[in-house]
Write a structure and sequence with these properties.
10 helices; about 350 residues; 3-stranded mixed β-sheet; single chain; 11 strands; 4-stranded mixed β-sheet; alpha+beta
């Protein structure tokens, strides 16, 4: 009996450890799975943040970010690449997505036999026991950035990653009419106007001249050649958005590490953020994204092969950069309307 009792007491103690191991393994396998897919695309010379649009234009799909057709909210980060990839693979004519339950709530259903696409939700949480430990030691109530004394951090937050399955609206039937309709293509003159507004609203010191496009992090300014230097006007704006994405990394904005020397992994990481951030911005403005620096491909592959979370971080930072610029554009537009 005593031995049996001891075994009964030990089981509850072992279970959390086993569950934690399973969660860690699941996260790792998901990071590996997505990274392998992205690396395979890059090795084949295909860039996941621009590839959809060659086929999409032929199918009449307007450039844009994937969105939840029920809520109207856009997906961000790595989910943009995952869902754009699904559009390519299956030739879906829509950027709208729904969960199984949302399809039912929208008055329809997912067609029998359809296979969904896995997207992810990443966040952090602080266990109650860790919050209590922090309170008892005087470190705080669970925040992640506050310090006391000799740089003692507050309660430690634990990252988690969850999978969700979504279906393209083209995989559903019976949905109510006009459910999150596809965006209407803008005329070129409107696209140009919006791109100019994004540049102006950013507040970044923006200079036109010379023969090179670059962002100078020390002096904090962007410089691009004049429009006539570009064969197509739209390439001028693609370049502007790429350099503006770099500018969001300044310490007074989003504060990314931009100290990497040319050819280093840190340099490649920042270029990867700028490439994807510019692609997300272009898609948001109705501009077909393109690759601005394909010559960095070897550096990107080196970064992704060395770290299975690198593409997740870069995509998250790219979304933050695009959101930062678009939010200021929206604020400026609302200010003009209110005036």
């Amino acid at each position: 009996m005593p031995a049996t009792t001891r075994r009964a007491r030990r089981k509850p103690q072992a279970q959390p450890e086993r569950n934690a191991d399973l969660r860690t393994e699941s996260r790792a396998s998901l990071y590996d799975e997505v990274t392998r897919r992205i690396v395979a695309e890059l090795e084949a010379g295909r860039f996941p943040w621009v590839q959809p649009w060659g086929r999409a234009e032929a199918a009449g799909l307007t450039p844009g970010l994937p969105r939840n057709a029920h809520t109207g909210r856009h997906y961000s980060g790595i989910n943009v690449l995952i869902l754009w990839g699904a559009v390519i693979e299956h030739g879906f004519p829509s950027q709208g997505w729904l969960t199984f339950r949302q399809a039912l709530e929208a008055g329809g259903n997912v067609r029998k036999g359809e296979r969904g696409t896995c997207v992810v939700y990443a966040d952090r949480f602080t266990p109650e026991a860790e919050k209590e430990r922090a309170r008892e030691s005087g470190e705080g109530d669970g925040g992640q950035t506050s310090f006391r004394g000799n740089d003692v951090p507050r309660a430690k937050a634990i990252p988690f990653l969850k999978r969700f399955t979504v279906f393209n609206v083209a995989q559903c039937e019976g949905l109510r009419p006009r459910l999150a309709p596809e965006p209407v293509p803008l005329p070129e003159r409107e696209i140009v106007r919006q791109a100019e507004e994004v540049i102006a609203a950013s507040g970044v010191d923006f200079r036109i001249g010379g023969s090179r496009a670059f962002y100078a992090p020390g002096e904090d300014y962007v410089q691009v050649p004049p429009q006539p230097a570009f064969y197509e006007q739209v390439n001028y704006y693609r370049t502007c958005l790429h350099e503006l994405t770099h500018a969001t990394g300044h310490p007074t904005r989003l504060g990314r590490d931009q100290t990497g020397a040319f050819g280093s992994r840190d340099y490649a990481r920042e270029e990867l953020v700028a490439e994807m951030g510019a692609a997300f911005l272009c898609a948001s403005l109705g501009i077909v994204p393109t690759v601005r620096h394909a010559d960095y491909l070897a550096g990107w592959l080196d970064v992704l092969r060395a770290d299975n979370r690198a593409i997740f971080r870069a995509a998250r930072q790219a979304s933050k950069a695009a959101d930062w610029l678009l939010a200021r554009h929206q604020e400026a537009r609302q200010g003009r309307l209110a005036a």
